[in-house]
Amino acid sequence: MAAIGDLPFDLWAVDSLTRVFEETSPEEGVGLISIKCAQNEYESAQLVITAKRDLRRVRVRIGELRGPDGGVIPPESIRANFVGFIPLSRNTPNTPDYELERKAPCRVPDPLLDLEEIDLEKGKSQPVWITVHVPKGTPPGTYEGRVEVICEEGRGELPVEVEVLPFELPDERHLLVTNWFSVGNIAKAHGVKLWSDEFFEILSKYARLMAEHRQSVFLVPWSLVRVYKEGDELSFDFSLFDRFVETFMEAGVEGRIEISHVAHPKSGWGTEVVLSNVTAIDRETGEKVSLPPEKGLGPLLSALQRHLEERGWLDKAMIHISDEPSVSNIDSWKRASEFVARYAPKLRRIDAIEGTDFEGYLEVWVPKLNYFTTWRELFERARERGAELWFYTCCHPFGFFPNRFLDYPLVKTRVLHWINYAYDLKGFLHWGLNFWRDDPFGEPAPNLPPGDTHIVYPGREGPLSSIRFDVMRDGIEDYEYLVLLESRTREIIERLGVTGEFDPSRRSRELCRRVVRGFADCGSALDLIEARDGIIEEIISIYQRPYAVVETYPMEGSELIPGPIVIEVRGAVEEGASVKVNGREVAVRNGRFVATASGEEVTVEIEKDGMRKVIKRRFFVRR
Predict the structure, then answer these.
(1) What is the dihedral of CA 526, 423, 468, 443, to 10 degrees?
(2) Per the confidence metrics, is the pTM higher than 0.85?
(3) What residues contact 608, with CB distance under 8 A and at least 6 apart?
(4) What pLDDT, on the 0 to 100 scale, is given for residue 189?
(5) Where does the pLDDT of residue 1 fall: very low under 50, low under 70, confident under 90, or very high at 90 and above?
(6) Of the four listed, 309, 523, 545, 604, which is most buried by Cβ atoms within 10 Å?
């Protein structure tokens, strides 16, 4: 903690996976804001101000951070946001107390406020969310600076240290991520008319926030296509649809275009699925006309497919049929899906699903996370036959499963995208970016788990992020770390001439298993931080000479049962390198080696021309 004279407050720091409540004690923190970050990555930590007496006009200032060889992280790459609190009167249902961050009633820190100053009551702790974005090309090394806290009663400061890693995260998004959003809520919250120029200006700010958080897919309403009727002929105006799509693509959300549902349950969830009518404007009378699916939706879908193809967007496009089909309405859902395929056969179909009987009717399968614990074999069979697999969360699953509820530990939000990598699930869907009720900062919706409805908040001039949205981004960036390690491993495998003999994703999956042991069995915040450090170490070391790739059978982290224990160790190294496994020299032929080992740890030593590399794999032995 900082102490400059007789300060009227304590200053301390915690990491981004620790929630700081108003009554959290300074003893839980440290005296240094410490961040470890790749180039082109966002990372956060928290400064905490605990008031020893009432404080007025509390402000926070951070200057540039200085590093080696004159390197600088400029002030515009650093943000400091006071964290707001959301009142909770009830917890997520069907969740053991030990799976909750805190029992209700309580106030949970989440929105990142756009306030320059606040007042703080005596005895209260106020977190300040510090976010650093390391620009591309920033030289690696340690960057240092100070954060200053000023109020009418005094001032103090705390040191900041950012370790810039010697690698860069790519701009390319390898994970498909969508958060559905309400355009009506955006317009209402910011006092603009829907579809006006002012609305699109605000919408672009939401799109930029999504892009900044590595969201790569956006939902576009098909109803933005204006339909006109002249006699028996229909014409279609795509100008509003195109403006919407271009708004997101220009902001950087450009992985996939997700077209909204063309059908819906007739009278509530699980009931018969019916296709939507289309509203057209009669050019002669100016009146609105409701067209049944065969006369309206079908022609619209055909025109939409042609338009997407003409704009070069067809390969990015997907279309929803009807949300969450299940065994109770699968037959009517299939008829709706067949209808879409008949009129737009080149358009991929996607849906969040509550079953498994979709083969031939769906290209992108999005099961709820918990269904992988019961129906994974059937989902994998669909993948083998060409389906793309994602997963989704919503008000379910709860209990032991990860989700992004306000009262769940933050690691349960971040680990969602480790699950994406661990099980090769190409995308993630959630319905609730901004489906807040009348007061976005008030008591959460009583019929849903707290936080399910929204993960951003409306600010004075645009959207506000939240702790959970930033932590979700951290999880997506962790996914990119795993992909980067896989990519570098593939390079080394190719350089050693052993393509096809070794799996470039195996080491990333082993490191991922340190955190994700099952869909409902994920590690602690410390487990995740340590695993991330391990990934960082291997991203760096894989490029260091002598080049090598090592695989063990079974995978690292497996439980070994004495009887006796035999681990097979396979590897490839540079020509002329020598290899020892657990201190025993092994033969290397054509740059490859095979050996056996036993025990809780396998150590592989590779040497060539004075260069040395040590690779370790650890296991658990049943006692």
Answers:
(1) -120
(2) yes
(3) 545, 546, 573, 574, 576, 577, 578
(4) 98
(5) very low
(6) 604
